[in-house]
Amino acid sequence: MTPDAPVPRRLADAARTALAKVRSSDTTGHRSLPIRREPEEILARWNEPQLRAAILEGIPVKDASIEVGEPDRDWGRTVTLDLELSKAVPDMHAQALTGKAVRRLKALCETGEIPNTDFNPSARDDAGERATA
Amino acid sequence: MRALCWMGINKLEVNTVPDPQIVNPHDVILKVRLTTTCGSDLHLIDGYIPTMREGDVIGHEYMGEVVEVGAEVKDRRVGERVVVPSFLGCGECWYCDHDLYSMCDDTHPKPELAEMVLGYPPGAIPGYSHAFSGLAGSHATYIRVPFGDVNCFTVPDGVTDEQALFLSDAVPTGWTGADFCDITPGDTIAVWGAGGVGLMAAKSAYLMGAGRVIVIDRLPERLALAESQVGAETISYTESDSVLEELRELTGGRGPDACIEAVGMEAHGTGPQYALDRAKQALHLQTDRGSALREAAMAVRKGGVLSVMGVYGLIDNFPFGMLTNKGITVRTSQQPGQRYMGEMMGHVQAGDLDPSFLITHRMSLEESVRGYEMFKKKEDNCLRAVFTP
Lengths: 133, 389
Prior knowledge:
Largest interface: A-B, 40 and 55 residues
Structural class of chain B: alpha/beta
CATH class of the largest domain in chain B: Alpha Beta
Order of helices and strands of chain B: EEEHEEEHHEHEHHEHEHEHEHHEHEHEHE
Strand content of chain B: 15-25%
Number of strands of chain B: 16
CATH architecture of the domain at 24-111 in chain A: 2-Layer Sandwich
CATH class of the domain at 24-111 in chain A: Alpha Beta
Number of domains of chain B: 2
Oligomer: heterodimer
Helix content of chain B: 25-40%
Radius of gyration of chain B: 20 Å
CATH topology of the largest domain in chain B: Quinone Oxidoreductase, Chain A, domain 1
Distance between the termini of chain B: 9 Å
Radius of gyration of chain A: 17 Å
Number of helices of chain A: 4
Number of helices of chain B: 14
Strand order of the largest sheet of chain A: 1-3-2
CATH superfamily of the largest domain in chain B: Medium-chain alcohol dehydrogenases, catalytic domain
Shape of chain B: globular
Helix content of chain A: 25-40%
Order of helices and strands of chain A: HEHHEEH
CATH architecture of the largest domain in chain B: Alpha-Beta Complex
CATH topology of the domain at 24-111 in chain A: Gyrase A, domain 2
Structural class of chain A: alpha+beta
């Protein structure tokens, strides 16, 4: 948050931070997305330890599993990710993190890579380093 | 390298930042040859688009030369001149497969931020906040372009850098806006906004067969460009008693067949509604001033098309019932430039589309802070400032 942020935005940020501290912990997520690849390819990517680590990078995971469903016309096969976090992440709903992970799996299967901002140029101290989730 | 960075609301600086590098196997690194201001950048600079971080490199409308390619890039070669549509596609997902590149499912590195405000993430766009990717922008010496084979388009010999530059965003946004109008020969199209996108929407409408194009703005120099460069008729809303009445008269009382809104959330206007918009925006009760959008919706004929290409955030005063009761089709999207690039480039090569007239100011990247100041305040009739890194 920049010091120049308008007062309503600063108040909203403060409220969000406070809510993140008091709301009940939320550690499970369930999200589906269609992936345009065959089941064996999807499962091979998911089951490869290095790739799974990349899919879940930055997310405190206690347990994660996927289910590959039926094809949905030309959208691909519906893949569902169930995620259990090892701890609640402030300011980030478990559903959102599950969505991020299943999108990474989808991108990896469909394109061979996961979009990221690693080594991204900026005028910050962390510029040019690997990004954190 | 050097780059123009967002350092806070209304605070830009040219700083030294690390060079980009190949991160993924389909990446391409470009040496930026030209990069330009876009009206939508002003929403970032003014603080109306959230999730900017101090130090972000901005800019999304650019062309350059390939200097490095990733291991799985097949079609791009070092030394090629290329132009890149601002929204990035992957070429593999359902959306790219259906020519909806700006909605790509697989290019956004931070989809969780976009989901919070949009429900589903769009394709990534560099230099346009973290909710829209967090990727470093084009106002820099170099830029990393994901999926180079899908997003980098060769600039043919005979097409200048200046012409190719605007095929990145202003032309495809205007082209998309006109395409949404489903123009049949002889149609009358009204365009709100005579900035880069509005002028390109007007030109595109003619190229698609419109019989008449009427451009609405307040700045005499921009209206003069609409007349001289595009061949459009014009209305100055500050000199007109009623834009709606003028449009009625110009169309025999029925209204334009389609209206293209190319202004966006910081519209200027007249009258009490505009004053209310300004007050609410100043108090941050809404992010948008919607006078152009409302007027376009009011002006379009019954059963017509309202094509919205201006960038909006949160608007809380829009007469939605007007759409229902007039049977208006609303179409809007970020531009899928990849879909239209062949057609647009063909028109440039044929000589019937030359967007380089949008350039009013050329300067080095080191002068880009001043360039944005001129662009924002429209000093010296600045329509587009173009930077050479």
